[in-house]
Design brief:
The chain is of the alpha+beta class. The protein folds into two domains: about 1-80 and about 260-280, Immunoglobulin-like (Sandwich), CATH 2.60.40; about 95-255, C8orf32 fold (Roll). The chain has helices spanning about 125-135, 140-155, 165-175, 180-190, and strands at about 1-25, 35-45, 50-55, 60-65, 70-80, 155, 175, 195-205, 220-225, 230-235, 240, 245-250, 260-265, 270-280. Strands 1, 2, 3, 4, 5, 13 and 14 form a seven-stranded antiparallel beta sheet that branches. α1 (about 125-135) packs across α4 (about 180-190), α2 runs antiparallel to α4 (about 180-190) and α3 (about 165-175) packs across α4 (about 180-190). The longest helix is centred in the middle third of the chain and has 15 residues, at about 140-155. The protein is globular. The termini are close together.
């Protein structure tokens, strides 16, 4: 599937902002299952962007605006070809919990078994994960069950949380948005030794009649490690195994590692934020 994404972020300041320092994770990576054909980022006020790869191999653009400005506009456009990582007629069953110990010795998995900024493996989280796991001995089956549990028992409520809400609060209150559901699933997986990482990006609602949550905005989901298959994406917000309709921007331990736009500025006024995302399917 070929997808074109236009992501526009605009900040307006009631008083002039100065010393604005920002990082962007808006460039889709090219992987075995996703090819970034083109990507372009523009910023107003006009400024020079530098870039680097972070510890999670995400492309990060950095810029600074020292002079006073009342508005900051960041626009990203990208065209990406995607294909499904999972054969839906042959789902990745067969990796038992008894072999999860090998993941602790894998460099790719080790960081995604630990606590992080928004994730803490408390006894309460561990007990809830065990209750949901029940008698499952298969890692994919357990992961799928955790995804389904969140989808069926958590309420989608855009006013219940903020960008800094911790996974433990989400698990306790069982409400939030895609970021919160992804954090909750990551915490539950890690508490029972399933490597899990947080993914940011977008997804295209190919049906246009199911009203899937998050299809016209930045989205978040989870990838779990299945030995023999690699990282498999699961979306607890929509109860879906990730397929070619999903477009990855960045991966990390939690949201702190992957925000599309982050930064600071100096100024005494208030700021207003408007974000617009448009995802379009292109012909082959």
């Amino acid at each position: 599937m070929r997808l074109h994404v236009h992501h526009r972020t605009e900040y307006r300041y009631s008083d002039f902002a100065t010393e604005s320092v920002n990082e962007l994770r808006l460039t889709p990576p090219t992987t075995k299952y996703q090819s970034c054909e083109s990507s372009f980022i523009s910023v107003l006020p006009a400024v020079r962007l530098t870039h680097y790869e972070d510890l999670n191999v995400n492309r990060v653009h950095h810029f600074e605006i020292p002079e006073p400005h009342s508005r900051l506009v960041i626009e990203s456009r990208a065209t990406v070809s995607t294909r499904s990582k999972v054969d839906f007629e042959d789902l990745p069953y067969g990796f038992p919990h008894s072999r999860l110990g090998i993941c602790r010795r894998l460099e790719d998995c080790h960081p995604f078994l630990q606590d992080s900024t928004f994730i803490e493996r408390t006894p309460q989280v561990w007990r809830e994960a065990l209750d949901v796991q029940a008698f499952s001995t298969d890692v994919f089956q357990t992961s799928y069950t955790l995804m389904e549990y969140i989808y069926e028992n958590y309420e989608y409520d855009a006013d219940a949380t903020t960008v800094s809400t911790h996974a433990n609060e989400v698990i306790q209150e069982k409400r939030g948005v895609c970021q919160d559901f992804a954090h909750a699933m990551v915490a539950l997986c890690r508490s029972i030794q399933i490597p899990a990482r947080y993914v940011s990006g977008y997804f295209f609602d190919a049906t246009r009649d199911q009203h899937l949550r998050g299809s016209e905005a930045s989205h978040a989901w989870v990838e779990v490690y299945i030995d023999g298959h690699g990282w498999i994406g699961l979306d607890p917000t929509n109860n879906k195994v990730v397929d070619e309709t999903y477009l990855i921007l960045a991966r990390g331990c939690d949201y702190r590692d992957v925000p599309p736009v982050s930064g600071t500025y100096s100024g005494s006024g208030h700021s207003a934020l408007v974000v617009h995302v448009q995802l379009t399917r292109l012909g082959d």
